[in-house]
Amino acid sequence: MEPIARRKTTKEIVYDQLKRSILSGELDPNQMMTETSLAESLHISRTPVREAVGDLTKEGLLIHIPRKGFKVRRIDEDDMEQILYLRISIEMRSVKMLIDHITDEELKKLDALIDEQQIAIQNNDRIRYIELDQILHRHLLKLSNQNILEQILQELYNLTRLIGHAAISKEGRMEEVIQEHREIVNALRERDEEKAADLMRHHLLTTASSVKKQREQLKNNKEKSDSLGGL
Amino acid sequence: MEPIARRKTTKEIVYDQLKRSILSGELDPNQMMTETSLAESLHISRTPVREAVGDLTKEGLLIHIPRKGFKVRRIDEDDMEQILYLRISIEMRSVKMLIDHITDEELKKLDALIDEQQIAIQNNDRIRYIELDQILHRHLLKLSNQNILEQILQELYNLTRLIGHAAISKEGRMEEVIQEHREIVNALRERDEEKAADLMRHHLLTTASSVKKQREQLKNNKEKSDSLGGL
DNA sequence: GCACTGTATTATGTATACAGTATAAGTGAG
DNA sequence: CTCACTTATACTGTATACATAATACAGTGC
């Protein structure tokens, strides 16, 4: 039988909700929050809040400023470089480890995920698009049976998402991503290890460079509007 | 004036002490402990204990078995492979990133660390030897200014140490390590990027294979004594 | 007006109490 | 003796209360 889904603890609810707010970008990185303020606004005690923010801090999504509170971490160009580098290392290995024993059924599951991602784009649902991207990449790690790498990738992926939805889901780039995903899966289907690994590297590199460009774009726009607003 | 060192919180003390016990191998991986039992034996309340074991669990040093308690995680061959792979990725990049701007002073600091490590071997102080190994590798990451990679390496390093002191500080291997460390630092001094990165890779690979051999050795010995004890 | 000091507020760490639930222990019937 | 059912024990999650220390603030004296 399926294991019964244990009902979520308060801590988990807080954790999920907070993480969502952080990663979706709806939480202003300048705004400070404290354990107490969060607990009060959620009408619960400090205990589960404290544990949730503690975990998020350890994951690097929040930073704690003693006696001031917590705020959302910022990611800079340099951090992104490092994350990209490691993701390439991890995901290329993942591809190589899974290619020999991936089944047809599992390949179909991957196809289905990409299909769903395409639908998300058509519906203009960027949140879902990003969610599915993560599911897809993570799923590959699972299939490769590299538990430790999977854990590290998860951390890196969360940090990646601090970059902001706007920078990730750039117009036009999303369609390209779908295409690249399909090519990777096709290479897996052909059992072409070299090709698959290479496509993965390429996919991550182009995503990174797209994010970088889009980020600069957004930054410029923001500066322009800021200076206008100052007049 | 020197800033006063903030006194450690109870949680930090518990965390440090527990971590030490885990990494030094003095904590039997079969033995279960609970928040309550730990709190009682330390004569403190559950709260700081709970936070400390929570953190250690997130770091992967402890595993939590619901309704049973916590125990020290075991690392298998497969995990070691993954850790090694990632450490090579990270530390080769580290070498490449720091080689252009490392100063003579910093090189001397590295020499001093290796000297100290050599003294530890002469004093047969394996704990200190391992500690210094970690400091050295971590120091290289700091010098390379790769904060995220440094954080990940720290996690990996902790997991590495779960392998056990006996397997890491094998007789004879320690002297080789010193030699390899010196060669890496010398390559840095010569600003030979290729050589330094390659020596680092080699160093990690030979360490891993030594650990693997030693581990099998220990396992065999244990089985022999177990079967004898069973008579 | 400025600096210093004492006070108030607030963030945080820790202790304690309690409730819920899963496992283990115990008890009784077949 | 075994199985089912009840009871008890213990692990965990959460709330609450309190102590401590750091910051903000205000008032007083120069």
Task: Describe the fold and architecture.
Two copies of one chain form a homodimer. Chain A has two domains: 10-72, Arc Repressor Mutant, subunit A (Orthogonal Bundle), CATH 1.10.10.10; 77-226, Four Helix Bundle (Hemerythrin (Met), subunit A). Helices cover 73% and strands 3% of the residues of chain A. The first copy, chain A, has helices at 10-23, 35-42, 46-58, 77-98, 104-122, 126-144, 147-161, 165-168, 173-189, 193-229, and strands spanning 62-65, 69-72. The mean pLDDT of chain A is 92. The N and C termini of chain A lie far apart (66 Å). In chain A, a hairpin with a 3-residue loop joins strand 1 and strand 2. By secondary structure, the first copy, chain A, is mostly helical. The first copy, chain A, is built from ten helices and two strands, in the order αααββααααααα. In chain A, helix 1 packs across helix 3 (46-58) and helix 2 crosses helix 3. A two-stranded antiparallel sheet of chain A has the order 1-2. Chain A binds chain B through residues 51, 54-55, 58, 60, 78-79, 82-83, 85-86, 89-90, 93, 145-149, 151-152, 155-156, 159, and chain B through 51, 54-55, 58, 60, 78-79, 82-83, 85-86, 89-90, 93, 145-149, 151-152, 155, 159. Chain A binds a DNA duplex (30 and 30 nucleotides) through residues 9-11, 34-36, 44-48, 50-51, 66-69.
